[in-house]
Amino acid sequence: MAAGFPGVRLGRATVRWLQSQSSSPLGVIGCRLPVMPGIFSGLPSQKQIRLVHVAGNQSNSANSTVLRRLPFATVSQHDLEFFNKVLPGRTITDPDLLESGNVDWLKSVKGSSKLLLRPQSTEEVSQILRYCNERRLAVNPQGGNTGLVGGSVPVFDEIILSTALMNHVLSFDRVSGILTCQAGCVLENLSSYLEELGFIMPLDLGAKGSCQIGGNVATNAGGLRLLRYGSLRGTVLGLEVVLADGKILNCLVGLRKDNTGYDLKQLFIGSEGTLGVITAVSILCPHKPKSVNVAFLGCSSFQQLLETFQCCRGMLGEILSAFEFLDSSCMKLLETHLKLVNPITESPFYIVIETSGSNEAHDEEKLHNFLETVMSSSLVIDGTVATEESKIKALWAMRERVTEALTHDGYTYKYDISLPVEKIYQLVTDMREHLGDRAKNVVGYGHVGDGNLHLNVTSPTKDPALLAAIEPYVYEWTARFRGSISAEHGLGLKKKNYIHFSKPPEAVAIMGNIKSMLDPHGILNPYKTLPDYLS
Ligand SMILES: O=C(O)CC[C@@H](O)C(=O)O
Ligand SMILES: [Zn+2]
């Protein structure tokens, strides 16, 4: 047991504590996150990445394929003059300023764009795209650049269209809880804005300090609150999108119900900027919960973790807002690389449970009863509960900073898999066995409540032989159980050629047709999402 951690231990002491503290204000959620830096400085110089690891369309095996630049036009002096006129002072060609937009957060892919445009309005985005479409200039829409699949940076010399300056809240309706804002609003800023008004955003991510709502919607980001508030496909009520030819599609309605025709906004949610540039979003925001508790628990097996989950759903019901896990290998990385202290006894698995409700006494009683049950039935070995904001933050860090810890462990191969929940950890065990000592670490963590595993494999350096051992094994394994090879991160550049493992050819063909219809010249985020033969 780690001494001095500022949580509250479970067992009898917890019972006493919960009774005696029932009137004390509990911590609030919404400002607990370590911020993933979205912008890097001092990056090591890297060659333009032309070799990407993708599966050959025929073989499905991991191999290095040269991705060829499609025959788009290149930016001319005349083009620069046009953009300078439309965006005076916001047409960036300085290589130092372009550096961060060309490299992804993981520093795993790098483009060589020579031009970064920073529009402030939908009209400006429309003028840019109309021009680029006529000139056949490729465009890479970019939000906070926190994506993990190489979808947010150019591959070659695509023009980077940054939404960073489109960062205004347009309206907020306190009766309906509908927020309408520009695409470049940073998620954390929206959260702070709403919290002042007694509301929260329906999504929360480790990258909240850098990621932008437009990028969140374009990638259909999931995150930590999905279990409670559902996916963006439900909470996004309306979108404004600029199409490849510059046409503005204003579907920015704020209606809970709207069955008039096809729900076009759904096409753009999760399309990774390949069908249009999202410029504004209407989103339904829940009331800020009055009472928040976080429990950090240890289990001795994944089976016990699953039983704890079942019990948790039954006993906490409507107040359960997150059920996340990490394995002991993740814990070791947190301890080694980030010097975090495990707040409880060393265990094979750790769970983060969050409750959010409107009645402190009621929530505490429910949580207490649940904890008593799982402790007394030995489903849980040890645990701690936090209610104050700083302590809640510290417990959440154990889950949210795993991604950051992994970046210090070497080159990381990342997989974001949806499976029937009882299967999720078997993939980690099988992968460990399959790779033997070829990998440095094979770790599993993620969103149990959503059946979403983050499987990460580290290696001291980039290792093509290791990659060939992981892929397509990981995708075949996933397909065997009818899982998804991209639960919440998207396909981007890195996963696009594996789409067939999760979608039938008929579905992929329809996606290709939709792309051709909306972006006939293929200028929007080329080389992403759809397999090579449809680019
Ligand atoms: O780094 C990853 O693999 C997962 C990142 C993110 O989706 C998370 O849930 O922490
Ligand atoms: Zn995740």
From TrEMBL:
A molecular-function term among this protein's GO annotations: metal ion binding
Organism: Conger conger (Conger eel)
Function noted in UniProt: Catalyzes the oxidation of D-2-hydroxyglutarate (D-2-HG) to alpha-ketoglutarate. Also catalyzes the oxidation of other D-2-hydroxyacids, such as D-malate (D-MAL) and D-lactate (D-LAC). Exhibits high activities towards D-2-HG and D-MAL but a very weak activity towards D-LAC.
Name of this chain's protein: D-2-hydroxyglutarate dehydrogenase, mitochondrial
UniProt entry tagged with the keyword NAD: no
Keywords (A to Z) from UniProt: FAD, Flavoprotein, Metal-binding, Mitochondrion, Oxidoreductase, Transit peptide, Zinc
Localisation: Mitochondrion
Matches recorded under InterPro entries: FAD-bd_oxidored_4_C, FAD-bd_PCMH, FAD-bd_PCMH-like_sf, FAD-bd_PCMH_sub1, FAD-bd_PCMH_sub2, FAD-linked_Oxase-like_C, FAD-oxidored/transferase_4, Oxid_FAD_bind_N
Domain FAD-binding PCMH-type: 109-288
Upper taxonomic lineage: Eukaryota, Metazoa, Chordata, Craniata, Vertebrata
Pfam families registered for this protein in UniProt: FAD-oxidase_C (PF02913), FAD_binding_4 (PF01565)
PANTHER family with a match to the protein in the record: D-2-HYDROXYGLUTARATE DEHYDROGENASE, MITOCHONDRIAL (PTHR43716)
